[in-house]
Task: inverse folding
């Protein structure tokens, strides 16, 4: 096992740390054993399928059914954002996934066009908060 310029067995590294007066537990986190990546994959797949279903079949459906599909898509997006935030624990990834999901959902129900989405992305890059 090698950490930086130190090399040795885990016990030797632990002994070096303890001899110099610090505990390795204070610096290293144990991996989360409750981590279930298949949940992320299930929600990503279901979100994509719901968005595709919304794109392909909302034109011929009744307005009530299309609203139900939009609500289901929003619920799946919320769950996806929560699971990704818990998995990665990074606010930037969470915001990127949320904005991407809202953009895909807006495109799938024809709220915005692709040109408008690209224009908004360009405007977002020049926003003062992103600098």
Result:
């Amino acid at each position: 096992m090698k950490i930086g310029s130190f090399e040795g067995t885990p016990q030797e590294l632990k002994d070096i740390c303890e001899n110099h007066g610090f505990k390795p537990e204070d610096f290293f986190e144990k991996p989360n054993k409750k981590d279930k990546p298949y949940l992320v994959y299930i929600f990503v797949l279901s979100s994509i399928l719901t968005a595709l279903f919304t794109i392909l079949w909302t034109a011929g459906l009744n307005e009530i059914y299309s609203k139900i599909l939009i609500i289901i898509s929003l619920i799946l997006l919320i769950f996806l954002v929560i699971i990704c935030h818990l998995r990665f624990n990074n606010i930037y990834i969470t915001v990127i996934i949320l904005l991407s999901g809202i953009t895909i959902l807006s495109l799938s129900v024809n709220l915005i066009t692709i040109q408008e989405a690209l224009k908004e992305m360009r405007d977002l890059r020049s926003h003062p908060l992103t600098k």
